[in-house]
Amino acid sequence: MSDSKVKLVFATNNQHKLEEVKSILGDSFQLMSMQDIGFNDDVEETESTFEGNAYLKAKAIFDQFKLPCFSDDSGLEVEILNNAPGVYSARYAGEHGNHDKNMDKLLTELLLKENRNARFRTVICYIDGKGLTSYFNGIITGQITNERHGEKGFGYDPIFKPDGFNITFAEMDAAEKNIISHRAIAVKELFNYLQQQ
Ligand code: IMP
Fold this sequence. Notes:
The chain is α/β, with parallel strands linked by helices. The protein has six helices and seven strands. The chain has a single domain (6-196), classed as Maf protein (Alpha-Beta Complex), CATH 3.90.950.10. Strands 1, 2, 3, 4, 5, 6 and 7 form a seven-stranded mixed beta sheet that branches. A hairpin with a 5-residue loop joins strand 3 and strand 4. The termini are close together. The protein binds inosinic acid. Inosinic acid (IMP) is lined by residues 73-76, 89-90, 120, 153-157, 169, 181.
């Protein structure tokens, strides 16, 4: 890699995600959001896999700007529900982003179920400056609790207890979660790959 900063577009306008990823990628990269490059299209997540949805967004940006870019798609996979809600995690109960309803629905589905195994998964799709596509995975396994614990984080955090911890994601400080999270693992995989280029 040359001394000058490598330009890299992250297909997000979520400031929180941007900061999280910046802290992992470090100073060698000039990380830009969709807003930074003036990409305002709404790319719908119409695919049935994380890979498919991540690709859609990265490809839309690459086609327009021909810059190295990446996109992430994440969700919760519950073993006894055949990996549901998966790509539908954000709209599991029908309303996009209604985390309370999503958690209620999941807790109801799992009522009296002994198998509470679950995992968060992130897939990153990276398209380099020449249009070559690569995928990176991040997984954290854990258990769905019987009820909500904690106020921090977002989404399913109050009902997900990562393996090796006695607290849920929503009881952890952001800094602690960001070290072990599925997203962090996937971004580190991407970082390792970029370092080798
Ligand atoms: P996204 O692809 O990162 O936007 O995630 C899609 C959905 O998966 C979110 O709306 C949440 O419902 C769920 N999700 C993804 N990551 C997390 C997490 O770290 N904690 C809790 N829920 C998450």
